[in-house]
Every structure is written in C-alpha cells, then in structure tokens.
Amino acid sequence: MPLLRSFPGKGIRLNSVDTSRAGAGSRFDLAGCRAAAALIATVALCLLLAPSAFAKEDRGLQSASYPDLTTYSCRSEALPIQPGQNLNLFGITKTCPNAQVESGTGDTSPFAPGSDAEGYITRFRPSMVEIEGDGSTRTPSVWDLHLHHVVWLKPGGGPTFASGEEKTEVKLPQGYGNLVDGDANWGLNYMVHNLTAEGGRSIYITWEIDWVPATPGRTDINAANVQWLDVAGAPQVYPVFDAERGFDRDGDGKFVFPDDVPTDPSVPGFEERQKISENSEWTVPAGGRTLVFGAGHLHPGGTSVDLEVARDGPDAGNIDGDDPSEVRPLFHSGAKYYEPAGAVSWDVSMEATRPDWRIHLKGGDTVSIDATYDVKKASWYESMGILPLAVANVNDPAARDPFDDEAEVRAMYEKGGILTHGRLPENIDKKADKDLGLPDPRDLKSGKRVPKSGIDIDGFRYMLGGYSAFRNYPSERMKPPTIRPGGTVNFTNTEALPGMPDEEQAWHSITSCEAPCNRGSGIGYPLANGPVKFDSGQLGFGTFTSSEVTTGTNTYTTPKLPKQGKTYTYFCRIHPFMRGSVRTTGKKN
Ligand SMILES: [Cu+2]
C-alpha cells in the first residue's frame, strides 16, 4: 500500500473543505488501515455462476446482475479548487455519501448514519463534476479540470478503487463482490488538476455503485478483496515515475517500468530505480487464491499494464522467475486511445479482464505488473502504472492454474481484455493543437538579454519571453530574450514561497517543447519534446501528502542550450497555456 506507507506520524488533512492547515483534530491517521490489510474473507465454495450475458462485447464489459441489486449514485462533499491547483489531498468519506437510488429495489438506508447493513459492491464507476453557480453540475473537460488520480481506501483494506481521468470502471464478474459496511469510513486520496488560473471553483468527486445486500446465508456471491499492484511508490507517497525520451533501451520506442530501468548508474533512467515500488509484486498467501478481475490505470503516454506470475520450477535456482520458463503472462490491460494522435492524451479507455477470466494461484507464487509507455514522441513525467487485482479466497471450479493448465490460461491471455467503457466526451482533447494565430517565436525579433537574476514566473506567466496560448496575445511581449550559446537560464517561481500555505501556492514547471509551441493547450499539446530535453518538476513547497509532488524549491536552472542562433521554447506542464522562449545569440547554422 504505497499510499499509506510513509504516513505514520505525519497526519493527513481532512477534506480540503477544511482549509485550516494544522489543527490536530482535523487530521486522520490512516496508518491503522494497514493492520487488517490481509483480511480476506474465507467463503465456502458455493458458486452459482449465471449464464453468460456478455456476448455483446462491443458495448464494453457488461456488469453482473442479481435480483436484489440496487444502483446508487454517491458523491463527496463540495471540494474547493484553487487557481492552477495540483494538490495531492487526503480526506475521509463514507461508502456512499449523499446516496441516491438510480435503479433497483433498494432504498438509501444501508448508507444512513449508524446503519449496520453490509453489502457487496459489484460495480464501481468513478467521475468528477464541477458545481456551477446555480448549484447544478456538469462534467468538466479534461483540458480545463481533470482527475489526476483519486483513490478510495477501504477501512482495513487499503487502496481499493482508483481512477484517473480515464475513469476505468470496476465490474466484478458474476459471483463476486467487494464486501463492505454501508456506513464505513473510507479514506479518499485525490488530486484534481486545474489547468487554468481561474479560481472560485468547486467540484464533487462522484461514484456510482451496484450494491448487493449481504443477507445471511447468501450463496450466490463471494467476497473478493483488492490486492493493490503499483509499479511506483512505497516508500515514496506519491506513486509516480518519469518515462523519458532516451530511456528506451532497445530502440522499440517503449519504456517498460520497472523492467527497463537500468542497473548501471551511468545509463539514462537509472534515477528512476529509487521509485520502483515493492508493491509491484505480491506473493500469494498459503492456501492459494483465485484472481477474478483486474484493469490497469495509466497516464497519457502509457500503452499497457501487464500482469504475470512466477513460480519456482525444477531448475537450479530456487527463486520464482529466475528462469524464463518459470514465468507466465496472465493479462495484458491495453489502452485504447480514441485520440487520433495516439498515446498523447487522456482520451483513452483501459481493458479489463473478461467475465470468464479466472486464475488459480498457489501459495508462494509471485504476481507482478509492469507499465509500458511510448517514449518515441515525448517524455512523460509523473506517470503511473497501477492494476488493482480482485482476489478471492475460494475454490472456483472455473479457475485455471497457469502452470498446470497452461494451454487454457494461455488462451485466456491471448483472448485479451474488454474495455470497461467507451469514449468519454469530457476526455476529448478539443483545445489541444488548435491554430491560435500566434506568431512563431522563431520569427520574432530578439528581446532583451536574460538578466543575471534569470526569468521570474508570476501571475501564471514567464515574465520575460513568456506568452499565453490565447488568441491575440500581444506578439511584442513574446520576443525571445537572449543568452550566449552554451549558456543556461535560471527561473524563479515567485508564486511559491517557503512557508506559504499549499493552497496559496501555484506550482509551475519549465518543460522543453518543440518550437513553435504556440498552438492551443490541452493534454496532447504541448508535448515534452524539445530538442534539448529538460523539465524542472513542479517548483514549489508542497507539504504533507503534496510534499513529493513539488521539488521543494522555487528555482530551476536549465541545462546548457548549445546551438547558436536558436530559439528554444518551453511550457508549463501543469498549466499548458503558459509558454515561453529564449534565444541563443549568433547566426543560425
Ligand atoms: Cu504553471
């Protein structure tokens, strides 16, 4: 559970509606959540597998059905969003706060305060809506406000449901559900990204659930708990890594984390080694377990999360997977990009396991995941690779062993997955790459010399040679300031000062992009694809769970910009409308 590991003693802020910064009473220690993490209900082997209702795969993965299933919509309290916000926050929530019945026979009493109702969540659909001035809600577009990540932490069970802007749905197969108390307190870790400088906004995090009451003696459903597999994280809190151009080892344009991370400190990408999480692997407990569902989570640039298992074989070594014959692939969670430009946006859905995918593993088997990113076109910073795996402690007659029933498991693997949902209108990257009619910075006259103090960032603008990707931005202010060839440029983010409350800081990056870098902003434009690769990280002084989101400083120096007479362009990854340029003196070659 990478998100929890380094919290003890630190305390965690409540819902960000509580803007008081310290008060011990406003903190919630999630450390105790770990204690019962291994709790996996033991359920008798009584499975009533319903006839397959999944023929129409083109509609995406279908959800399971039960006679007494009720669909509820749930939502958080209102969460304020600061200008340019990218805070990593923790709060507490309930199983289904502000519950409303969407369909089915039940009422909202299971979620009432003091309720002792238990039930199975068999489907979970995450999203986020913005609250308008009149109280109505609408789903914001990805180029405006987006869900970087949100994780629901089950009491005693750790991270259980999770989402980014791709909004992967959990749809457990017939016969399985996540058993929870209706009135439970959950942890909620959320990072909502405001790509604009606009303040005074607020959102709800929303989730829709299918709920099946856990009535005594029920035999048609078994408990499945989540084994959280995450390629990056623990011991760091913020579970991300960088996938950069230049990290590709074999020329296929891909970077596979953690497999491709070099062991040689002189090889590019070695610095990512410290970000590999111990939670990228899981050892199956004694008695074995049945895997029933999985679906990957990625960020833009990601193309798949892959699940495999290793078991020690009759070779000389006695470690799982020390010989290639001891490894079997279990599932390839592919990313389907609707975005015509490919893996450069959040316009994507992920494949989940099929309804009949069942894998039985023996105690001691080692399950692991890796995440693949396309690093041909651009670098990807703060990337994720997660696959929450639903695991049951039952003997499911449909389950197959990857080594004993090799051909059948191979067939399941090769059949691949099913998308959990279709294209989401809010994820269409409409604003990116639009021609705004701005001049090409390379064609503008040179501006002043960059002063010794460098370039300040203030008011969501690079103060010298900076421009905003808005129509009619004055070209006079876009003139590239100059440095000598081989020189560097210092930047200072004056909107983040030591000791300033997180929500008052604005964190910015300086990230190289390929010139002209003057088109419309979104997720897919600009890309981190400049000829000299650089990225400052998020300059600022985040505290608590945002501490690893920021660099802990507000200054940055670029690498040397070598070529004479060249205009180098850059942008802010957090607020991609922020652009800037700098030019080296001398004649172009
Ligand atoms: Cu910025």
Structural class: mainly beta
Beta-strand content bin: 25-35%
- Report low-confidence residues grouped into runs of 5 or more: 1-57
Shape: globular
Bound molecules: copper (II) ion
Radius of gyration: 25 Å
**Continuous helix count:** 1
- Number of strand segments: 35
How many structural domains can be distinguished in the coordinates?
2
Q: Give the overall pLDDT as a whole number.
A: 89
* Helical content class: under 10%
> Separation of termini?
53 Å
Largest sheet: 13 strands, mixed
Task: Describe the fold and architecture.
- This protein has 589 residues and is an all-beta fold.
- It has 2 domains: 24-49 and 66-427, no CATH class; 431-589, Immunoglobulin-like (Sandwich), CATH 2.60.40.420.
- It contains 1 helix and 35 strands.
- Strands 1, 2, 4, 5, 6, 9, 10, 12, 13, 17, 18, 22 and 25 form a 13-stranded mixed β-sheet that branches. Strands 15, 16, 19, 20, 21, 23 and 26 form a 7-stranded antiparallel β-sheet that branches.
- The chain is globular and about 80 Å long.
- It binds copper (II) ion.
- Residues 84, 508, 572, 574-575, 578 line the site of copper (II) ion.
